[in-house]
Amino acid sequence: MPDKKTTKKVVAKKVAKKAAVKKVAVKKAPAKKASRSIEAIANAAYLNYRRRIEQDLPGCHNSDWLEAERSLGM
User: Fold this and answer.
1) pTM tops 0.85, yes or no
2) What b/e sequence results for 23-38 when a residue is b if at least 16 CB atoms lie within 10 Å of its CB, and e otherwise?
3) Residue 66 class from Cβ within 10 Å (0-12 exposed, 13-18 middle, 19+ buried)?
4) Dist CA 4 CA 15 (whole Å)
5) What are 32-36's contacts with CB under 8 Å, separation 24+?
6) Are 41 and 69 in contact (CB under 8 A)?
7) Which of 2, 21, 34, 68 could form a disulfide with 45 if both were Cys (CB 3.0 to 4.6 A apart)?
């Protein structure tokens, strides 16, 4: 029969390993979401730029970006 110290060490290692796995998963998830949202904003800003140029409207890249953020609700 294993002694109590060995059992506690094994349990502690398992708990620490599960906690480490959860931390890694939490850190990676927001990065993908952020990159997707930036890509979506960039795409919308480009479309705003194209529309602005085709219609010969005044503006700049900053206004295209801000309009894209507003339209996507970000």
Assistant:
1) no
2) eeeeeeeeeeeeeeee
3) middle
4) 16
5) none
6) yes
7) 68
For the stretch 28-71, pLDDT in tens is: 656 666 777 999 999 999 999 999 999 999 999 999 999 999 99
Q: Is the dihedral of CA 54, 59, 61, 64 positive or negative?
A: negative
**Using CA atoms, how far apart are residues 61 and 9, in angstroms rounded to an integer?**
58
- For tokens 């890249």, the residue is 61
Amino acid code (one letter) for 45: A
Q: Which of the pair, 6 or 61, is modelled with greater confidence?
A: 61
Structure tokens at 74: 């970000």
Rg (CA), the chain: 25
